[in-house]
Amino acid sequence: MASVQEASRALEHLADLVPSVAHRLTSGRKDVSVSDLGENDRILVRPCEQIPIDGKVIEGSSSVNKAFLTGELRPVTKQVGDEVVAGAVNGEGALTFKVATGCNVIDIPLAWSCLPIRNFSFSSSWRFIHEHFYRCSCY
């Protein structure tokens, strides 16, 4: 039961960590809600900002820190053609990426409501959430 409570608390914190606003590039830059983003929208992530939604880099190069998502200790270099993951922290360079086809934002309340009826560890919970609530073609 303790692991379920820990997973529930972790999901609450995860919802707070993922940005709710993105810099969409059209003819200029416009800040929009992540929920308003569509497939193939071009998104700008400046240095030290969090990546708001999954996508594929189309311009720029930077290191990206995914530690709170994956536990990786070192930032990973991302460049044109590489995939980026929502919630990761951009490093020193600006990145422009396209929102991945079929990407949805994690439905935290729905995922959270499913946890009490399951009895599994946090890592299993995380896999469950990604398999069922984070439908994205970039995985």
Poorly predicted parts: 104-113, 116-121, 134-139
Major β-sheet profile: 6 strands, antiparallel
The succession of helices and strands, N to C, reads HEEEEEHEEEEHH
Strand content: 25-35%
Total E-strand runs: 9
**CATH topology-level name of the largest domain:** Calcium-transporting ATPase, cytoplasmic transduction domain A
> How many helices does DSSP assign?
4
The mean pLDDT is 76
Strand order of the largest sheet: 2-1-3-9-4-7
Percentage of residues assigned to helices: 25-40%
> Globular, elongated, flat, extended or rod-shaped: what is the shape?
globular
CATH class of the largest domain: Mainly Beta
CATH architecture of the largest domain: Distorted Sandwich
Q: Roughly how many Å apart are the termini?
A: 30 Å
Supply the number of structural domains: 2
